Amino acid sequence: MVASEQQAHEVDVEGAGTYGNYIHGQYESLVPLLMYHNKLDPQAAMDRASEMVHESYNSFNKAEQALYEEVEPEQLENVKAYVLACKDLIMCNLHWSYGLKRYMEKDMLQKDGSVIFNIRLPSGR
Predict the structure, then answer these.
(1) What is the pTM of this model?
(2) CB neighbourhood size of 72 (10 A)
(3) pLDDT for 24-42, tens place per residue?
(4) Which single residue of 17, 32, 44, 94 could bond 27 by disulfide (Cβ 3.0 to 4.6 Å)?
């Protein structure tokens, strides 16, 4: 993932101004929160957010395996089906979120597969 201050701009969400990143004095996404609270530049915040996703993925997989070890054998298939449904819901949410113009502009996706996230902190912060 790539973040660039030169390419930063305010996100216009269907005429709602900067609603996508900043509402009523609150940061509304992880990257600006990491930038603000940890004094990170945009790329460092994107890198940290990416690390957090990988850490969560690994933790989820470990928890899944631990769960399977604790389940009674006769319930294992039901539990596996439930976990698969949870995974499907997570993926559906990601596809929906990043498939909407509100969250992902066409110019953000680069030919090499990387994504440029445009970030701008509110002035005075």
Answers:
(1) 0.59
(2) 8
(3) 455 667 888 888 889 888 8
(4) 32
